[in-house]
Amino acid sequence: MTITTAVIDLDLPGATISRHIYGHFAEHLGRCIYGGFWVGEDSPLPNVRGIRSDVVDALKAIRIPNLRWPGGCFADDYHWRDGIGPRERRPRMVNSHWGDVVEDNSFGTHEFMDLCELLGADPYVSGNVGSGSVAEMSDWVEYLTRADDSPMAALRRANGRDQPWRVPFWGLGNEAWGCGGNLRAEQFASLARQYATYARNHGGNSLYRIAAGANADDLHWTETLMRSFNDLTSDPAGHAGPFQAVSLHYYTMSGSWSDKGDATGFSTDQWYITMARARHMEELLTRHSTVMDRYDPHRKVGLVVDEWGTWWNVEKGTNPGFLYQQNTLRDALVASVHFDAFHRHADRVVMANIAQTVNVLQAMILTDPDTNALVLTPTYHVFQMNAGHQDAAALAVHLRDADTRTVEGDELSLVSASASVNGDTALVSLSNLDAEIDRSVVLDLRGRDVVGHSARILTATALDAHNTPERPDAVAPAAHAGVRAHARGLEVDLPAHSYVTVSLDLR
Ligand code: AHR
């Protein structure tokens, strides 16, 4: 067995890992909003003003920092005025992207802001550029954030909310190259500048505007948006303008868009393909950042990965438009690998939003449509085990002797790692992507004294192990005893297909 060494200089803190990298996404899609978050005030399930209490409690436990809403593709079909006022009078619409179902708009602006307040999460509202007007978006910002007796503030008050909300994050469209309008990069860059101009700061509310960005390796899209910053003057809050960030979307699957692979029952080869494709995020961040550096060498413009995660074939018997999939140990390792990449790029990646929070794609939480039983997925546990990285300073991890395996013509490094320090605590995250072979990692810890440690492990016997209402803890974190003193620091056992976090007490 090869022993991998991870050299970490504990006294050389790098960029701050924004807690917003641990952000989430909730779209009007399948059972994410309806049944997932929203059950209505009359539900027999414990709820606060119609919002499921068990879901809120579970997300608060992983320190959910922000929530993106209402889409996704849905955002560019959404007209916010349909979702305010008495629910029984709200107009209906067709959710043409997701299942072609009728949306009754019972979950709208007030319900979303209430949800964010219950979660203690910052709202990230995706504005409609695809089918909405500039005035409509401008009015929505005013409705949400203005304090005086302006027309939109008065309308909000008439609907029961006196004080404006704080809205830090504002999306300008979504996937404008696809469902958000099928635009060319040049067209969208002009629109983004225009919409950004009218998404105004009211009173003390300062918007961080995020322009809909590239699909995966479309560097031209990022380049075009960056070029459209003809100056990088700052707004009163010190943000570069006209928008402050561009986004990036990338999904992981083991097959193709027409047959993405199944969430469970996959082969070992599919495991490795998945890991290799998840690790591709690292390359994407490097390449998009390099393009951004040319226009913004001081890294004032953020990169926001506001959709990422696994996308599998839907579970048999479920609505194909609802994107309901099971979530296994493999999904957990896809998440850990993404976080390692985000941590390494903390000086450019300011936010990321896994798709999606409940019952859709790589969810944190699955709820049973019949019994309403709630299950925490293996992915949820990675968010929990990694929570200590939020707002900590990234530490470089230099890996030596990490084995590789050739997958789809490229070398897949079988160990992934990242680390951070926050005062007198450091957190090291380690993933063994090898489906079959146990390994160990020597943590060569330099620069500060380590006076104590504890470790947790997430693994299971089967690669596709997952949690169900009957076995909710089939994949759950446990204390990890496989950590020993070593001449260079610590030696950590990493069983095949496992994820380990080591917390270090420093002096
Ligand atoms: O997350 C599901 C969908 O994936 C989103 O609506 C869209 O932006 C992306 O294509």
UniProtKB/TrEMBL annotation:
Protein name: non-reducing end alpha-L-arabinofuranosidase
Taxonomic source organism: Gryllotalpicola daejeonensis
UniProt cross-references to SMART domains, sorted A to Z: Alpha-L-AF_C
Quaternary context: Homohexamer; trimer of dimers.
Record has Hydrolase as a keyword: yes
PANTHER family: ALPHA-L-ARABINOFURANOSIDASE C-RELATED (PTHR43576), INTRACELLULAR EXO-ALPHA-L-ARABINOFURANOSIDASE 2 (PTHR43576:SF2)
Family label: Belongs to the glycosyl hydrolase 51 family.
Catalytic activity: Hydrolysis of terminal non-reducing alpha-L-arabinofuranoside residues in alpha-L-arabinosides
Record-linked InterPro entries: Alpha-L-AF_C, ASD1_cat, GH, Glyco_hydro_b
UniProt keyword terms in alphabetical order: Carbohydrate metabolism, Glycosidase, Hydrolase
Highest taxon of source: Bacteria
EC number: 3.2.1.55
Domain (Alpha-L-arabinofuranosidase C-terminal): residue spans on this chain: 306-498
